[in-house]
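Box S1 | Example of a co-folding query
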Amino acid sequence: MNIYFLRIFVLFGLFFSTSAFADVSFDEWLAKQKVFATEKLLANISPRGTARGVVVASPSKKEPDYFFHWVRDAALVMEVVRSHDLTTPETQRRLLEEFVRFSRKNQLSDAPSGLGEPKFHVDGRPYVGPWGRPQNDGPALRALVMSRWAKTLLASGERSYVEDFLYRAEIPAHTLIKADLEYVAHHWRQTSFDLWEEVRGHNFYTLVVQHQSLQEGADLARVMGDEEAAFWYEKQSNLIAKKLTFFWNADKQRIVATIDRDGGANYKNSGLDTSVLLAFLHTRSSHGSQSVMSLNDPKLVSTLRQIRQSFEAIYSVNKNHKDMAPAIGRYPEDIYYRGNPWVLTTAAYAEYYYLLASESWSLDEIKANIAKGDAYLKRIRFHTPEDGAWAEQIDRNSGYMLSARDLTWSYASFLTALKAREAIVKRIAGEK
Ligand code: NOJ
Ligand code: NOJ
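Box S1 (continued) | Returned holo structure for 1-deoxynojirimycin
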């Protein structure tokens, strides 16, 4: 055998020894990663050297430095803490209360863009260096998770905690949710930076989470005897719903991520962006409120197909393994770390199909959708190192984990996808 072949052989061996395929079935792998993701997510909440209530985006302190509390990431992670059984009920309660205290301090800090400030130091001071600010999805996401928690507390007779810390009917607001809702209701017309912190404009993702926060916030306001505020929040959310219709590009048959751009990155010409899917996933409600889109909305379906196709065409990891579902990135023009697939956006596609499965009628259709979702988690598995750890991104060429290690949001996105999977798998098992 010549040396060239030998090299290929060795490389091949190396590759397979680092991937996590060693004899474990997919179900076993899911179970193992669930435990691992839970541990890793919890480890990023108030880690050593940070204030209680902090959620660090990642433990990585350089290249990149993600050792900060991002309002968006933190809210999304706390939504997982709130709605999953990651810990004992006592610990869950403590984590939520600490988050409330820390977040209220953030609100009261003298931040450059007030409640739209995206990022805080781990001691609670606002980050004041140059940054894409404001990012107005943050207060909306925080209001959403907190309103849902408030409703649970009210149902178990804890009105005084809610009134003292979460929602009291008064202006100026002195409570966390009330302050966020006032901010959202008064600022949604302003342009702000998108969730990727790059483009200033009216962003679909931001408006969808703002809309949902005002809908669910209005319900809470009413329960808290704040009838007029409820009316005003609802009115604003209906205006947002109208604004959202302008994101549909009929020529291209896609929902675009941004309109009215007035700052930041200007090279995102396609408008395709996985944030459109995240908008949907992050506002799904088990609380009966109306969300702006349904899973089967042809506009969403068409957009998702085009996003998927764009990533199939540009990443080597996808072109080299066409037998698998594609790894999904943020948007095709992405240049951050030269533009790569991300764990959380790939997991989002999995979650989408699991949710679609739960809304399907025939058993065949359900199974087909579960299989589609599984294909995306199998894609993530293919790029998962032996130790199970997920960073932010997957190198588009080598397939190895890239950028911020142990990104909290990566673990959160897997856990929400898996929960959707468990729900539908359990249901069809029960029906048999
Ligand atoms: C850091 C942001 O978090 C990321 O989303 C962005 O792509 C880069 N900065 C480049 O602006
Ligand atoms: C960059 C991402 O683009 C942004 O959405 C996120 O908030 C930060 N990283 C922190 O994880």
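Residues 1-20 have pLDDT under 50 and may be disordered. The pocket of 1-deoxynojirimycin (ligand 1) is lined by residues 196-198, 336 (CB under 6 Å).
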